[in-house]
Amino acid sequence: MKLRLSDAELERLNAYLDRSPDCERLSKREAVLDLYDADPPVSMNFVFVKGGIGIDGAFALEYSEADDGWYLGERIEDPARIRGLLEAAGALSEP
Predict the structure, then answer these.
(1) Measured between alpha carbons, how far is 48 from 75 in angstroms, rounded to an integer?
(2) What is the pLDDT of residue 76?
(3) Which of 4, 27, 33, 55 has the smallest set of CB atoms within 10 Å of its CB?
């Protein structure tokens, strides 16, 4: 799925990823971002493409007390929901 973003939004997203401790850059164009403050928390893998980001995978995170760790839960397939999560995290707005 693709999420269209303006040039300004892409710039702000890149800046957000650079300062986020919960982001892992896999390459200059690809990143994994965990949003633990979302309800439920979310993990997403995306690639920067012309005019936005291609979302390779986005999942709600579930916590296992028995394993004391997070695991992937429900898959998120709605681009509007992804946009809302990024907006709520402040990833698309001015810092």
Answers:
(1) 20
(2) 96
(3) 27
